[in-house]
Amino acid sequence: MKLSKKVLAAFSMVAALALAVSFTSCADEEDENGVIEVSGNKATVNYTNESSTEYARAFRTLKQDRTDATCKITIDRAKSKGNGGVVGFMFNESKAKVTDADIAEGKEAIDAGYLTGVTAAQLEALKGKEYYDFSIAGIGLVQPVSTSSKVRGYVSVFDLVDPSSLESGKNFLDLLGDDAESVNVTKDKVSTADSNGWVVVNDYTATDNVYTIYIKMAVQTDGSIKLDYYKDSDYTNNKLNDSATALQSITIDAEDTGLDSKKDGGIGFYANVYGSSTLVGSWEFFDFAGNAIAIEE
């Protein structure tokens, strides 16, 4: 069973309206294993996943929603082990519950033939269930991790994510138990991406075996979201140098973001530590002027 984009848009309506009302929200957290350690606008991951079969996923969002922000990510290829994992920038995040209106929209979609393989009773069973919508710009290392591994990245959009699916299989699951990834942006838009959407970034070099990547995120007036990737030397005191040129630019179309204008969304830290692996890295959030963005402790 897979929900169509029309139904996904309907289920996201409540969250989208909430974002339009206020610039602030509650900070969301899904990290029962203590994968991410947060201090102000910074966070670190230094975690070993002992399980050989399960993923150790976690995320923490800031209290302040944003239409734009920059995330400084580091990943240590000497201290990361096994297959490592993902140090990711989560953005356009929202949390909501399935409402009666959502169920009605879903039933209409069934009647219209937009949604197949799902019954009205199954939709009814979703009432009141919490879910997340978000996008992730993930940074990882070519596997298996070694001191010669290159840095790589991906961008994906996820809808109706079931909070209980953080350790369920290769990807997030939606409320119906299906793959929650609605769009694999890098796979669709970047010609050099592999079959899973990973893009090796050859222009980055590690300093003392640590990669530093700046990801600048900006929601556009039409609701699309642009991501610009920069190297460490492009920033001075966390402010972009005037002469800097993005090494990679990726745009998520408005039809995939679920936005129709420049609206705020949650931003935060995302980590995924693969089975029998260790991931070591960090995050730091700041605005375009280089000022720190606060997180609710």
Shape: globular
Report the radius of gyration as a whole number of Å: 19 Å
**Spans of at least 5 consecutive residues with low confidence:** 12-24
> What is the element string, with H for helices and E for strands?
HHEEEEEEHHEEEHEEEEEEHEE
DSSP strand tally: 17
Instruction: Give helix % range.
Output: 10-25%
Relevant terms:
6 helices; eight-stranded antiparallel β-sheet; single chain; 297 residues; mainly beta; globular; 14% helix; seven-stranded antiparallel β-sheet; 39% strand
Description:
The protein is mainly beta and 297 residues long. The chain contains 6 helices and 17 strands. Strands 1, 4, 6, 7, 8, 9, 10 and 16 form an 8-stranded antiparallel beta sheet that branches. A 7-stranded antiparallel beta sheet has the order 2-3-17-5-11-12-15. It is globular, with a radius of gyration of 19 Å. The termini are far apart.
How do you describe this structure in short?
This protein is mainly beta.
Layout of helices and strands, plus pairs?
Blueprint: H1 5-11, H2 13-21, E1 29-30, E2 36-39, E3 42-49, E4 56-61, E5 68-76, E6 85-97, H3 100-112, H4 120-124, E7 130-141, E8 151-161, E9 181-184, H5 185-189, E10 199-200, E11 210-219, E12 225-231, E13 235-236, E14 239-240, E15 248-252, H6 254-257, E16 266-273, E17 277-286
Antiparallel strand pairs: 1-4, 2-3, 3-17, 4-16, 5-11, 5-17, 6-7, 6-16, 7-8, 8-9, 8-10, 11-12, 12-15, 13-14
